[in-house]
Design a protein that fits this description.
Length: about 180
Amino acid sequence: MDKNKFYIGLIVFIVVFGGVIAIKSFSTKSALTVIGPDQTLPETVAPIVEEQPSETTNPTVSAHPLLNTTWVWQKTTYLNGTETIAPAGKFVITFKDDMTLSSTTDCNGIFSKFIVDDEILSIGPIASTKMACAGETLETLYTQELGRTASHVIKGKELRLILLKDAGVMVFNEAL
């Protein structure tokens, strides 16, 4: 039987007989139960209630300690023991509760979306303003490292971004 004819016939039946449809889901299959107008839903069938989208952010996510925080990059320590020291106060990053971040660098500004789930942190894609930079800059390195972030740890006033494959750790201090 053609699916459309079946559904049209079902709708006509419901309208003519005043029935109400309750849908009960069984993994990938659905069962239909027709209930008369003077009957109530069986206890095993829950009425369908549509959730209205909230204007506020998800309370679980908004309670995450990384959100609405600002940090200053101090250094990156690499697996081979070398370090890149950040110029004082130039690289400042803010994680917002709308799941976006913005950062100043030693030349341009960058911005991105991020996903955080417990310790897992994914940043990207990253975009930046395109001002010409005078002299040497750590902006490209900083941006690449942010894009390779796999997870994070906050201990007191310090944020550590752990890079993919344990390649290194970006260390930030809480901005005052």
